[in-house]
Each structure stands twice: as C-alpha cells, then as structure tokens.
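The data are passed on as follows:
___
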Amino acid sequence: MKSGLYSTSDPKFAAHLIRDGILRPSGCCRTADQTTFSFEDPHGSGPALFERFVKGEKPERVIRAGMVLPDGFIETLSDGHLLVSRNGTEERRDTWPLKRGKIFVPPSDVMIRERVVLLPDGPQPYGTQEQLFREISRCVHRYVDIPEAWEELVAHYVLLSWVFDAFRSLPYLRFLGSYGTGKTRMLEVARELCYRAIEINGASSTASIFRTLHEWRGTLAFDETDFQNSAEYAEIIKILNSGYKADSPVLRCEGKNFTPQPFHVFGPKILSNRTRFKDEALESRCLTFETSCKKTREDVPLELPSAFFQESRGLRNKLLQWRFDTFRKLVPEDTRINGIELRLSQILSPLYLIASTESFRGRLLEFSKEYGSQQRQRRPEVIVLEAIGGILAARFPKDRNKPIPLKGIAEHTDLVMSEMGLARDNDHKELLTPKEVSVLIKGMGLEIKRYGRGRVLIVDEAALAANRREFGLDGNREHEDEQAKEGE
C-alpha cells in the first residue's frame, strides 16, 4: 500500500471514516467476494487514526471551540458545526483530524442553544475597520448610557476580544457599582458583541467555570463576582489572576488518581462588581468604569429589544470576518506609555495596537494617564502615606520627628479609606490591619522598631518625601495648589 493511501473491505468502517472526515475517499474496487474502499490522507494525520480503527480503538477526541491553523482558522458556528477557513476557502465540518491519532470536535451545542455561549452564524463583509468600529460604538450608545470616551473604549475592547489570542496579556473590562446603577446592562451589551462570549454568574460552580473556559476559550462575561463563600472566592481569584496572561494555565487534579491537568483560562473578561477586589494585583488588571445612580438618557430602553439581538448577531458575523482578515497582521509590540505604571501600560498595549484611528490612540494615551493617576490613589501604599502625612500635619513642629505607633497609622488609614468610599460595610473587609500596614511600610523602605508592647514608625522626612514623589502625591498636590491660585 502506498504511503498516504489506505484501504478497507469493512463497509461500516469505511462509512465511519467518511462520516468523520478522517480520510478522503479515493475510490472502491468490487470483486465477486468483496468490495474494497480506498482512502487518501490529505492532512498527514491518517496513519495513527487508521491504526487505532484497525485495532478497534476510538480516536482521542480534542474538544475545543476553535483553533488557529498554519494557513487558516477553525471556528464553531451558532449551528454547532465547525467552519474551516483556509487560504480563502471555507468548509463546514463536524470534525477535523489532528496528528497523533486525535480528532478535533466542537463542544456540546447545548451551551449554544441555551445562549450560555454566543457565536456567529458565519463571516460577513464589514467594509473597513473604522466603519466596523463606528457600528459597534453606535450600538453601544443606543443601549447604554456611558461617557463617549468609555463608549470608544468598550467598542475597542470588543474588537480586541476577537483577536485576543494574538497577544500575550490582556486587560479586563469591569463595571463597578451598587444595585440598580446599570452595570448588568453594560455587561449584557458588551457580551453580545464579544468573541465566544460565555455567560457566568455568581451561582456557577468553579469546576464548571474552569471546564467551560478551557473548552470554549473565549470572553468570560462574569456578572456579580462578589462571592460570599471564601473557598469559591479563592478559586475565582486564581482564574482571574492567571487569565490575563497567555500560557499561564491553572492546574487542577482530575480523575480517580487525581492526575494534575492544565486548564487554560486566558482570554478577555468582562466583570460586574458591587465592590472592589481585595487582591491589589487583580485590581491593577481591570479597566474600571464606576456606575452611578444618575438619571439614564431618555432614549435608552429599559429592556433590550429584539432589534438589539438581531443587530448584535449581525455584528458578530462581521467581526468573525474581521478576525480572519486581521489576526495575522497584528504584531504585538512593547508599547510603553510615559507617566503611568508598567502594569497599566502592559494591559493597555493591545488596545493601542488595534486602535481604529490615530485620534483614538491619542485619546487612549490621555485616558491612560488620567486613569493611572486615579488608580494610583487607591493603592494601599498611597493610603498609608496619606495617613502618615495626616498624622504629621496635625502635630506641633517640635513633635514631628517623634515615632508614630503603627496602631495609630492603621486607625488613620480607616479614616482615609472611609473618605474614599472604600470602607464598604460593618465587616471592614477593605480596611488595613496594623500587620498589613507594617508590611506596606517595610516595603517602602521605611524603618519600624519595637517600642514597649507595640511597634512604631521611625519618622524619616527624606524617605517619606521620596515615597510621596514616587507615587505622585507631591505632583498632585502641586497641581491642586496651581488650580487654587488660578481660582483666586
């Protein structure tokens, strides 16, 4: 038998090979005793698969919603079938053969039928990227009431979600606010437009979230991420802390033998919270729009109409074609934005690279600086420095250099955080304990000594001033003084 050519006289076996698209039928030879079916192997994956079938074994199934091929893409469509787009040609399949005796199959279509996962019907023309961006922006504007700058940011985040796997790290889009401020509506509208959007809420089990993300590898739309159960909260934090960076799977033990298995959780994430995360690293990865109880525009409907779902479905089809056209043109770069922290510069870099216009890039740079300054004020180190500054300002000049008890600093951080709206309830979940204050102070290079039964901060004016400059506190104060003089 020639290399790449296979034959069988078992009609059921032949039908199975044809049905699953494993090998390509090349002909059949009939004799008085039997009929022999011949097959070719167009994908270089037949030998292992053929050997498995001869031995009576089933091929291993790789369940995934899509894949980037060397010359194209595989995408699961809304009808549950695979779309194979290669070199400008499209083909619909139920399976796709892989090397080492494996078969690529789409996940269960029950997730599509129940609208847990949103998919396109097929690629459609979209014009230019700027025209597509304007369509998305207009759609967002019609159904949510947010500032124009955030409309543009949400529209670009939608675009980013469709090519996220071309990048190494991503930001999260988060809507933060209390009950009845419209954060769920914003999440719903953004979700309808994003790539393989997966709807998850606080009632979902962590195991189901891991598996769903691993199979679908799309955009996680997570409503009400304020978990009461501490064990569940810890698991969700693992997903969110690992999910912003490529090639950073979460390991979990599976099966009777508790074999460690990697679960891939990388991808865009849209979150809605009533309160901020206690994990500062996670907070730094979120682009947060804070909702309010202001009156909504009159033209924004109270309920999403059927026209919105038809419009969003059409946009998903256009965005799929945009993914095919754009993915391989993207070249991730090290885009550093002066004046903001490296973490914020890192997560905003993908948005900068896919910007539809140069004017948006300019506005994104300005937004980054302003947003970075606002976020910096919420850092625990900044809060501690403000608390120390408040204590020193209340002292007489002769007492400024006296040590400050850590307990007093912790109490003053309580006041600072309350003024910022961070002390959210009677449990004081976001308030800093003396031990946490001690860790932060040591991390800033300030000196702590034991004094009697407690510990105190040794006041070093030069070191405090250096830390204030590093976190931009003195710069903000000078700016405020200039504004006050202009006002006079």
Notes: Residues 117-376 form a domain with the Rossmann fold fold (CATH 3.40.50.300). Residues 306-326 form the longest helix (21 residues). The longest strand covers residues 24-30. Residues 423-429, 476-488 have pLDDT under 50 and may be disordered.
